Amino acid sequence: xxxxxxxxxxxxxxxxxxxxxxxxxxxxxxxxxxxxxxxxxxxxxxxxxxxxxxxxxxxxxxxxxxxxxxxxxxxxxxxxxxxxxxxxxxxxxxxxxxxxxxxxxxxxxxxxxxxxxxxxxxxxxxxxxxxxxxxxxxxxxxxxxxxxxxxxxxxxxxxxxxxxxxxxxxxxxxxxxxxxxxxxxxxxxxxxxxxxxxxxxxxxxxxxxxxxxxxxxxxxxxxxxxxxxxxxxxxxxxxxxxxxxxxxxxxxxxxxxxxxxxxxxxxxxx
Length: 270
Known about the structure:
By secondary structure, the protein is an alpha/beta fold. It is 35% helix and 18% strand. It has a single domain (4-257), classed as Alpha/Beta hydrolase fold, catalytic domain (Rossmann fold). The protein has helices spanning 10-16, 74-78, 101-121, 136-147, 163-169, 179-191, 210-219, 238-241, 243-257, and strands at residues 30-38, 41-48, 56-60, 83-87, 129-133, 154-157, 197-202, 225-230. Helix 4 links the parallel strand 5 (129-133) and strand 6. Helix 3 (101-121) packs across helix 4 and helix 5 packs across helix 6. It is globular.
């Protein structure tokens, strides 16, 4: 598995993370949980419920976002009969601690498990799909590699197989880091993932170039994979440039993978 601690230099982290302390009161159709991930460190996750029977997407957001940004985005998912649970990162929103690449890889399984447990406790569906946007693709891919048996399907939006190539692309100072070694480790992880996957990317994404999505598509170990390129979209407007196409693709992917359950549990209607 990739060793992110080797990349966690201050010069890299200052470019990769943009934590904000913004955190809105929880809307009436949502609920928050605070998840302990380390000594004196807790991360807040917000779950948006449109209907008890709808499937859940467990979502890891981009580096400049916080969970409460999704107060306005979740209702778009409701229109396509999907619930959304969004996880924050250390130091983001109401969460404590300091973010790092190693931490987001470490925390992802803990957050995923806590969200599933809370859904089960509330009598809701817990047979979830995992989605990562941009930086969140690290969390999503780590989860798919380590706990694929618990996940129905994987969605990567504006993501990448390895942060090492982005460091080079964005000219981020990274002295003394073996980026080639990290890239090989990431590709080995991606090649071992056999979950169904939907990859969505903007045609004109200059922050995370389209080649990253194409590389992920080419290297992912899954035989059930799809790459959707949103025409004319960039990194930060992809959802709204192709809103209908974007959400229809996710909904169809969920419908297609609803009865592919690696855990052996009986699937529930969506």
